[in-house]
Structures are given as structure tokens and as C-alpha cells.
Design brief:
Length: 360
């Protein structure tokens, strides 16, 4: 069931001065998000991803198009109805946004107090949430007494206070160290799996997408340039911007100076095979090479686990009888696509051809 739908949504901000042009932050975006899904929206600064988030919680209204939550066009709601809507949408932030003067339990209680819930209900809900995020022993502490990861867990508990169906996370792990990031992502995974909350994550960190999301949406200059399951996008990115993001977490095919350095250090022919879940395994490639008496060494790349499925590039240095090596490459490539062979050898062959042509 579609819970969130953006149809032809654009958002243009007026120029800062009379000499400036209007700023198109979001440009004709169509996006459907199913109930219970975790969707990651990635893009470089200025891509429009944060504006999309503000459109989803009605902090901004679109210049054109519609934003629907559970079938209701929120762009036409009155302010009173918008307040009710926002109670169904939780938010967590990069800098936590906690009240320093309030204790942990009072921070979590705040949305419930604003909603006018009875004191007994608030106390029970706060206790339940602090247990869920593993901070029962920190209830009386103030934010200044907490680590960054603990502060974000308080932020998550507060965002869940009103039992929202949707959780929006705006760069929620950018201020955390790698270990703490993994802890927070694991907690968000529990929020999705155990509570059934639909999560939309805004981030520029592809490792967050790989760890948490079911689907990824890539934005550039206000537009969606690519989207799909995390496995499909990470294993076969189509757009240049997507490939740059993917290269930050997955070893790509070596090229240029990197490839030349590998050729200098390793004898033999250098080839890269793509391993993709459901198509071929490392064992298939290695068995084919071994059957032809070809020795091989893994010199670059590796295999990645993407939400329980495997993908990667294996760059191998192959040595053996030239004919046997060539035949082994052909047979192995029939299973795992041969992505690239050393550009160094190709350049050398081109030079030889040019010399022969000149003699002729």
C-alpha cells in the first residue's frame, strides 16, 4: 500500500535579491513510498533532498504538484489538520535538537505534553520508549551528560512518542562516529521491523543506505536521477553521480594510475570479473581458471554483502600458458562478465600497431 506519494512536485524559492534568479530546489519529482518501507534519499549539497523532507512534513508547500499522505493531499489541509498530520510524522535531526534544560524523560515527554495527554499516560509511554532505546538508566540525566549516540537515541524516542506511522531522519548519523552510527542504524532497523514505522532517510552517506534502506532514491539539481532497490542501484549504478556515491563504499574497477601501479607490481594479465548474486559465485570463476591450469591472485576489489545479497568486482592477476589464460578468461567471462582488462597492455599494443603501420 502506498503511504506517501509525490506527484509532479516542484518547489521554487524567490530570489534573495532583485538581481538573483528564483531557486528551483525541487523540480517535477514523482515518488511513491510504501507503508513499512525504508527509503534512503541521497544527493550532494543542493540536490534538493532536505527540501523534499520539509515538503513531506508540510513545513514547506510545493509550488506545483501534490504531496499525499495515506491518500490525503496535505497541500490543501487547514493548519489544525496539519497539526494532527504532524503528530503522525516523527522527525530526528543531525544535531539532535534536544532541550538542554530538560531531563531525558522530559525531552521524550514533550510531544505528549503538547498533545495534552494525561500525566499517567505520558509517564507510561516515556518509560516504555526509554526501555526500547536502551536508556532507562538515563531518565534523570540532562543531554549534556550524554554521548552523541545516546542523544540521538533520546531523539528517536522523542520522535516515536506519539506513535507516528512515518519517521523522517535528516542526516541523523552525520555527527556520529562509525561505531555509534551502526548502533543508531540498528535501532532504526528495529523501529521499522518491530514497530512497522515507515522511514525516510536523508543522507549523503552510502553506507547508511546499504545498512538500513530497502530502496534508494538519488537526487541531483532538484530531480530524481535514479532509484531502485539498494542492491540493484549499488550493483549496477547508471548515472555518473550515483557511481560516485557507490564508489565510496564499493571497490570499483581499477583505472588510470591505479591500474598502472597494479600492472607494475603484478605479473601476468590483469582482468576484473563482476560477481552478482544469482548469476555467478567466486567459486565458479576460480574453478574455471584452475581447470585451465591458470594461477590467479586477487589484487583489487572484493565481495560486498548488500542486504543479504552479494556483489563485487574481483580484479585478478592471471599467469600461465598464454593460450590457456586466454581460453580461461573467455570461459570465466561467460559466467561473470569481464569488466576490464589492463589498459596498460592495450596502450602497448596500440603503440606496436602504430610502429608496424609506419613501417608499412
Amino acid at each position: 500500500m502506498t503511504l506517501i506519494r509525490l506527484s509532479g512536485v516542484s518547489k521554487t524559492f524567490p530570489p534573495a535579491t532583485k538581481n538573483d534568479r528564483p531557486v528551483v530546489a525541487v523540480d517535477d519529482v514523482d515518488l511513491d513510498i510504501a507503508a513499512g518501507e525504508v527509503v534512503g534519499i541521497v544527493g550532494y549539497s543542493g540536490a534538493g533532498k532536505s527540501t523534499v523532507l520539509r515538503l513531506l512534513n508540510a513545513l514547506e508547500t510545493p509550488s506545483s504538484g501534490s504531496v499525499e499522505i495515506d491518500g490525503r493531499d496535505i497541500t490543501s489541509l487547514r493548519e489544525r489538520d496539519l497539526r494532527t498530520l504532524r503528530g503522525d510524522i516523527g522527525m530526528i535531526f543531525q544535531q539532535f535538537n534536544l532541550f538542554e534544560s530538560r531531563t531525558v524523560e522530559k525531552n521524550v515527554a514533550y510531544p505528549l505534553e503538547i498533545a495534552g495527554r494525561p500525566k499517567a499516560e505520558i509517564a507510561s509511554r516515556v518509560k516504555e520508549l526509554l526501555s526500547f532505546v536502551g536508556l532507562s538508566d538515563k531518565a534523570k540525566n540532562h543531554p549534556e551528560q550524554l554521548s552523541g549516540g545516546q542523544k540521538q537515541r533520546v531523539g528517536i524516542a522523542r520522535a516515536l512518542a506519539t506513535s507516528p506511522r512515518i519517521l523522517l531522519a535528516d542526516e541523523a548519523t552525520s555527527a556520529l562516529d562509525p561505531d555509534t552510527t551502526q548502533e543508531v542504524l540498528a535501532l532504526l532497523g528495529r523501529v521499522n521491523q518491530e514497530l512497522g514505522v515507515t522511514i525516510v532517510v536523508i543522507t549523503h552517506e552510502m553506507d547508511v543506505i546499504r545498512t538500513l534502506a530497502d530502496r534508494v532514491v538519488v537526487m541531483e539539481a532538484g530531480r530524481i536521477i535514479e532509484q531502485g532497490t539498494v542492491f540493484d542501484v549499488l550493483s549496477a549504478p547508471r548515472h555518473a553521480a550515483t557511481r560516485r556515491f557507490v564508489s565510496s563504499i564499493i571497490e570499483d574497477v581499477p583505472q588510470g594510475d591505479q591500474l598502472a601501479a597494479l600492472q607494475t607490481r603484478h605479473p601476468g594479465r590483469i582482468v576484473t570479473f563482476t560477481i552478482r548474486d544469482g548469476d555467478v559465485t567466486q567459486a565458479d570463476v576460480f574453478a574455471t581458471l584452475s581447470r585451465h591450469g591458470v594461477r590467479f591472485e586477487l589484487i583489487h576489489g572484493g565481495i560486498n554483502d548488500i542486504r543479504g545479497r552479494v556483489f563485487g568486482h574481483l580484479t585478478l592477476a592471471l599467469t600461465g600458458e598464454p593460450d590457456a589464460v586466454s581460453q580461461a578468461i573467455i570461459e570465466a567471462a561467460a559466467h561473470a562478465p569481464l569488466v576490464e582488462e589492463t589498459l596498460v597492455e592495450k596502450k602497448e599494443e596500440t603503440l606496436v600497431e602504430k610502429k608496424e603501420d609506419h613501417r608499412g
